[in-house]
């Protein structure tokens, strides 16, 4: 009796089948999919461990991709100001704020949380010529402070 498996596009097993449960391959009562690949008992054990994937011919070690970084969508006023200080931008930003309209000055002065998506904040980063990646980095670092 043999093991069979179907695979996802990344080579990880999608499903396992065994002839003792799913019927003998080639017989009428077999429910093993046609695209299932015959594998050995050792390969079944490896694939079951999730530390191996199928490369089309054999099992190979599976190294998962690194997780995508989580970019904070907000930071506290304290975190924001400390990051401005650490980046050497506090006086530049406060100088720019002083040239803005009363609403923008009030928003900066009274803000307890800085939202990355805030339009006024985006205007400030644009005035600093910050790229989207630099804004992401600013918020990522600020969130650790």
Task: Note down, in words, how this protein is organized.
By secondary structure, this protein is of the alpha+beta class. Helix content is 41%, strand content 18%. It has seven helices and seven strands. The strands form three sheets. A three-stranded antiparallel beta sheet has the order 2-1-3. A hairpin with a 4-residue loop joins β4 and β5. The protein is rod-shaped. The mean pLDDT is 93.
Question: What is the approximate shape?
Answer: rod-shaped
Query: What structural class do the secondary elements suggest?
Result: alpha+beta
Distance between the termini: 59 Å
| Radius of gyration, in angstroms, nearest whole number | 28 Å
Average pLDDT, rounded to a whole number, is 93
Q: Proportion of β residues?
A: 15-25%
Low-confidence runs of at least 5 consecutive residues: none
- The largest beta-sheet arranges its strands as 2-1-3
Number of helices: 7
* Total E-strand runs: 7
Q: Tell me the series of helices and strands, N- to C-terminal.
A: EEHEHEEEHHHEHH
Largest sheet: 3 strands, antiparallel
Residues in helices, as a percent range? 40-55%
């Amino acid at each position: 009796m043999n093991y069979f498996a179907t695979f996802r596009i990344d080579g990880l097993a999608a499903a396992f089948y065994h002839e003792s449960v799913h019927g003998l391959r080639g017989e009428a009562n077999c429910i093993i999919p046609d695209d299932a690949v015959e594998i050995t008992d050792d390969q079944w054990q490896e694939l079951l461990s999730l530390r191996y994937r199928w490369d089309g011919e054999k099992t190979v070690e599976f190294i998962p991709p690194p997780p995508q970084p989580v970019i904070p969508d907000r930071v506290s006023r304290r975190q924001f100001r400390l990051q401005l200080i650490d980046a050497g931008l506090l006086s530049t930003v406060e100088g720019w704020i002083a040239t803005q309209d009363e609403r923008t000055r009030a928003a900066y002065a009274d803000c307890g949380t800085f939202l990355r998506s805030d339009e006024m904040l985006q205007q400030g980063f644009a005035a600093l010529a910050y790229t989207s990646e630099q804004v992401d980095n600013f918020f990522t670092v600020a969130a650790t402070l």
